[in-house]
Amino acid sequence: MHQRIKEGSTIDRLKAVCVGDHIEAINDQSIVGCRHYEVAKMLKEQSRGTPFTLRLVEPKRAFDMIGQRTRAPKSSEGKLASGKETLRLRSKGAATVQEAPNEFEERATKKVDDLLESYMGIRDPELATTIVEAGKDKKNPDDFAEALDSVLGDFAFPDVFLFDVWGAIGDVKNGRV
Q1: 94 and 119, same structural domain?
Q2: What average pLDDT score do residues 126-145 get?
């Protein structure tokens, strides 16, 4: 996790944990490859007053967790890229090239990321992108909530958050930014 640590939070009071540290395991359970919200959920589920352990990796060593680079297969079609792709690295599996988000997706993702921070105290552009992708073609809040539930049901977002996200996506869609 490479997130901002909120001032005055429990983690902020632990001087052994610094911004930039990567959590490798919680109670000896590896979280390498887990999404930010999955890690946040695991931490939230720890019983109050019960000790738990975090195994941390210093930032300079975090890249050791990424597998060796492999050469991409050469395209036989000679197709040129648009220049708007983004390279997505994963801890398990090959790296993939994805189309870069369009202007709508970028703006909507930024708004959703802001809402994630105000409601949950986290910034997670990847989670925000997943939320925008689930909701961008939905016609009403119920369809949106259903789509989000099928992709991120374990997270159990509060209804008020869902309505604010639905509104933010709608605002961007209708040019009211």
Answers
A1: no
A2: 89
Residue 59, sorted as left (phi over 0), alpha (psi -120 to 50) or beta, turns out to be alpha
Could you list the residue range(s) of the whole structural domain that residue 28 is in? Answer: 1-66+83-100
Contact by Cβ (8 Å): 173, 151: no
Cα–Cα distance measured from residue 104 to residue 84, given in angstroms and rounded to the nearest whole number: 14
3-state secondary structure 100-120: CCCHHHHHHHHHHHHHHHHHH
Structural contact between residues 17 and 25, judged by C-beta atoms closer than 8 angstroms: no
Q: What are the pLDDT digits (tens) for 160-175?
A: 888 899 999 999 988 8
Residues 58 and 3 in one domain: yes
Instruction: Indicate if the pLDDT at residue 154 is higher than 80.
Output: no
28-58 confidence digits (pLDDT tens): 888 887 877 788 788 888 888 888 888 877 6
Give yes or no: residues 91 and 112 share one domain. Answer: no
- The answer to the question of residue 128 being in a domain is yes
Nearest-angstrom CA–CA distance, 170 and 136: 8
